[in-house]
Structures are given as C-alpha cells and as structure tokens.
C-alpha cells in the first residue's frame, strides 16, 4: 500500500487526492488530506466571494472526493508547527504533497501603508468569508464614504463588488453575521478601483468585470480619456490581435464610458494609468486619501511616470495586488517567486529532487489561474509521484499516522466533525432567519466539531 499525505484541502489538494485514488497504475493508494483549519475546501470556502454561489457550489464536487473511502480528511492539523514537522510527516507517510496555497498578501511599498483604514484585500476577503484567523479584523465601514481599491485583478473586482453591494443581496449568502451587519451599516457610496496600467491590461475576467454593471443601485463609470490612452483602444487592428478576454474587457469598459455620475446611491469608478505613490493620512493616523502618479504606456506593455499627480479621497484603502506564498518551516522556498522550487512537482532541495516530497497548486506555480487550472497542475505532480511510487512504497511505515498525530498532541477534526460544523452552521442560519451562516472563529468551529 502507498500512503500519501496531502497538505491542504483547497482545490489543488483535493484534485491531487482525487488523481491519486482514481489512477490505476499503482493500486492500493490511501490518502490523508490534512488541513490547518477545521474546515475543508481552502479558498473555495475562504476566498471565493459569498455571492458567487455557482463557484461556491464547487464545494459539492470537492466533498464527493473527500468522502471517498480511500481518503481521510484530517482538519485542525498544522504541518510545520511545533507538533508536526515536515520531517516527521515524511516518516509517517511514503509521500507528502504540499498544496498549501499562497496565503499572504503583497505590500505596495509606499509611504502610509500603516495608516488606520488601510488593509489588504486578502484580510477583507478573509473577514467577510469567515476565516477564523480574521475574526479579530476591524473594518470601520460606517465611517467610510469613499474607498479606493488598488489593483485590477479578480480579487479587486470581488472586494469592489462586495463594498458596493446592498446587504439585501448579501443576506442570502453564508457571510458571517458580524460582517453582514458591518456591511449593512456601511456608509460607502463611492469605490474607485485603480489600475497602474491600461484597460487592455486588466487581469480580471470579463464575466466578473461585467457583473459590476448589474448591481442594483450602483452606477459604474470609466473615464473616456483614460480609455483612449491605451494604444489599442482606437486601433481596431491592434485590438483584434488582443487575447479574447482583453478584447471583451475593453468592450465592457467602453460601454461604461459615460458622461459622469448618474443618480444611483453608489458609484464604482474604474480608473486606469494611475500608479500608487503615497497613502495620505490625517493627524489622527487615519487614511484620508491616496496619491497617484499618472502613467503613460511605454510602448512595450509597461508604463512610465509622467510626473503628474492625482489625489483620490478615501477613508478605506484596500490593496489588491496579488497573493504571495509563505515559507513553510522545513521546506525549501524561493523567496523571489514566493514558491517552493520544484521539477514537475518534485520538491527540489539544493537543486535535487527530495525523495517523497511534492508540491501542487499556488505554492508550486504562483497565485495565477482559475480554480480549474489546479487540476492539470495536480495531475502533473501526481504523475511524478506515481513514477517514484515503486521506490517510495518499499519503506515500512510506523503504523496509522492518525495515532502518531494524536500522540504528538494534535486533535484532528475528522469528517464527522466537519459534518457537525456544517450542521451547526445550518442551525445558526436558521436561528438568524438566513440560510446556512459561517461560524467565523476558532472556538466556535472546534466547539461545533464536537469531541476530538
Ligand atoms: P492578479 O490577477 O495577479 O492581479 C493583481 C493586480 O495587482 C494586477 O492588476 C497588477 O497590475 C496589480 N499590481 C501588482 N502590483 C502592483 C503595484 N505595486 N501597484 C499597483 N498595482 C499593482 O491577482 P488577484 O486579483 O489577487 O488574483 C489572484 C488569482 O486568483 C488570479 O488568478 C485570479 O484570476 C484568481 N481569482 C479568480 C476569481 C474568479 O474567477 N472569480 C476571483 C478571485 C481571484 P499589473 O498587471 O500592472 O502588474
């Protein structure tokens, strides 16, 4: 039998587990899917926006995989912490596949990032998604009239949309009650989503972008002069050569180039060619706005500064400039790329494949792509693992890893514990007159999981 630990129960971890048990080359594979959190599904539970129910429903297919009899879910198990080192994990299993994602946000590296009211989009997403590590985050939304979101990716679109959405539309989601209450009391009327490059270079996908224009009570606007700065904007031949997604994005943005604010209670402005220079604050240490430098295309896809500045008022700034991998104690790490060095998924130590250690997902390739991108990524890694399986399976293991984890003082949440959390979230929702509502803190989650 080949016993494999998959660390991380987000899409890449679950796809790795699924590929391992569904292949026929190596019979008798058993997989434990470990997660630091008591709940499975990674960013599908804690990153996909609560109002994106269709993407959220992917949890159903991840669940089917985790319920396979050859797979065990073990939540509340931190790898790389005091109780369980990467070395010890490799003693307990023939192979370990790290699918730990890219948990940290990136900083802008400009003055003012420490001001009150400046947050990462990651923290905001974690908070409204009920991530237990974000339970103590405070967003002073009643005191905010205007918000700036820096970045032009899908996360920027998500946080812009959640800030602009009315709570009536969020109430049917599983958003934790404290976050829903804070958004209900929000004073936000204007959100500026600001990109340093041009409209044809936005990283958002068209479906997500277009959705901004469908929000009730929200005007969306673009500045025709900013759109026209993009060299492809007025050049149909160059526009036709763009990737389809960029071409469609341009069309959507063109449709929003309008005469100015309408009479909707809230307004989203999509701004381009503005590079962050400084976050401005008042004497009380709170953010009051953000200073940008107007940029211009440099002819090779980048931008150059023009020396012209523009300030945008804001009482809330969310930087949404991408995720970054976090080093895991005991695993090699390429700090420049924010990933674990690998060859076709085999972890490289000092340039050589480390026996029995693999990576998949964002910690392997960086924080790019949509959820489905993780499937081929996990397949490549598992295919490397299966090539090595003959040699790996020769080693005798010390017994059921679960006993060793418990002996180390860990209290794994097994699948019935997770089902108990789900049931408690359904009960919580019923008590609030809502559908299932997330429990947003460690104590609540572990309490709901029952005796461990
Ligand atoms: P992203 O797609 O990499 O976008 C990052 C944005 O930040 C880019 O617009 C980038 O601009 C900008 N940026 C980076 N450094 C900057 C700086 N110093 N100053 C100003 N702007 C800066 O990252 P993401 O939005 O975090 O998304 C991560 C991944 O998750 C993506 O693959 C995304 O598609 C996926 N995701 C998908 C969905 C969905 O499908 N609904 C939802 C959420 C996330 P430049 O282009 O100029 O570098």
Give a quick summary of the entry.
Its cofactor is FAD. The protein is of the alpha/beta class and 452 residues long.
Pick out its properties.
Rossmann fold, 18 helices, 6-stranded parallel beta sheet, globular, binds NADP nicotinamide-adenine-dinucleotide phosphate, 7-stranded mixed beta sheet, FAD/NAD(P)-binding domain, 33% helix, 2 domains, single chain, 18 strands, 452 residues, alpha/beta
Fold topology:
Layout lengths: L1 E6 L3 H12 L6 E6 L7 H5 L6 H4 L2 H8 L4 E4 L11 H7 L2 E4 L5 E2 L12 E3 H8 L17 E5 L3 H11 L2 H4 L6 H8 L5 E5 L11 H6 L6 E5 L1 H6 L6 H5 L3 H12 L10 E6 L2 E8 L5 E11 L5 E11 L2 E4 L3 E2 L17 E2 L2 E4 L2 E8 L2 H4 L8 H19 L8 H7 L7 H17 L10 H8 L3
Helix pairs in contact: 1-15, 6-7, 17-18
The structure holds NADP nicotinamide-adenine-dinucleotide phosphate.
Catalytic activity: 2 reduced [2Fe-2S]-[ferredoxin] + NADP(+) + H(+) = 2 oxidized [2Fe-2S]-[ferredoxin] + NADPH
Protein name: ferredoxin--NADP(+) reductase
Family: Belongs to the ferredoxin--NADP reductase type 1 family.
């Amino acid at each position: 039998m080949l016993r494999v630990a998959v660390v991380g129960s987000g899409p890449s971890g679950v796809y790795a587990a699924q590929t391992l048990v569904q292949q026929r080359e190596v019979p008798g594979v058993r997989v434990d899917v470990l997660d630091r959190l008591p709940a499975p599904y990674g960013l599908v539970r804690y990153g996909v926006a609560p109002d994106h129910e269709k993407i959220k429903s992917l949890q159903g297919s991840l669940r089917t995989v985790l319920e396979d009899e050859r797979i065990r879910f073990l939540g509340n198990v931190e790898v790389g912490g005091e109780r369980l080192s990467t070395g010890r994990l490799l003693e307990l299993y023939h192979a370990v596949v790290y699918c730990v994602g890219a948990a940290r946000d990136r900083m802008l590296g400009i003055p003012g990032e420490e001001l009150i009211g400046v947050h990462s989009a990651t923290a905001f997403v974690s908070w409204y998604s009920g991530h237990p590590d974000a339970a103590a985050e405070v967003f002073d939304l009643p005191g905010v009239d205007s918000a700036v979101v820096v970045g032009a990716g899908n996360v920027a679109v998500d946080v812009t949309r959640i800030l602009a959405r009315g709570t009536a539309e969020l109430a049917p989601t599983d958003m934790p009650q404290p976050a829903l209450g804070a958004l209900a009391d929000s004073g936000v009327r204007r959100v500026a989503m600001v990109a340093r490059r041009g409209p044809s270079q936005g990283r958002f996908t068209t479906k997500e972008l277009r959705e901004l224009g469908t929000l009730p009570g929200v005007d969306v606007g673009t500045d025709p002069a900013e759109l026209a700065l993009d060299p492809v904007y007025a050049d149909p031949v160059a526009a036709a050569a763009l990737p389809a997604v960029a071409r469609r994005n341009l069309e959507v943005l063109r449709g929003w180039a309008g005469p100015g604010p309408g009479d909707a209670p809230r307004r989203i402005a999509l701004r381009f060619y503005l590079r962050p220079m400084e976050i401005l604050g008042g004497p009380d240490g709170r953010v009051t706005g953000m200073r940008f430098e107007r940029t211009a295309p440099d002819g090779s896809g980048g931008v150059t500064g023009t020396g012209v500045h523009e300030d945008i008022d804001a009482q809330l700034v969310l930087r949404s400039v991408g995720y970054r991998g976090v080093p895991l104690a005991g695993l090699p790490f390429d700090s420049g790329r924010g990933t674990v060095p690998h060859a076709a998924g085999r972890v490289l130590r000092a340039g050589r494949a480390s026996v029995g250690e693999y990576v998949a997902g964002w910690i392997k390739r960086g924080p790019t792509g949509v959820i489905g991108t993780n499937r081929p990524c996990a397949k490549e890694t598992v295919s490397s693992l299966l090539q090595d399986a003959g040699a790996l399976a020769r080693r005798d293991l010390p017994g059921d890893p679960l006993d060793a984890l418990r002996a180390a003082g860990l209290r794994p949440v097994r699948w019935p514990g997770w089902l108990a959390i789900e049931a408690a979230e359904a009960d919580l929702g019923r008590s609030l007159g809502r559908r299932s509502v997330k429990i947003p803190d460690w104590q609540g989650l572990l309490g709901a999981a029952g005796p461990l």
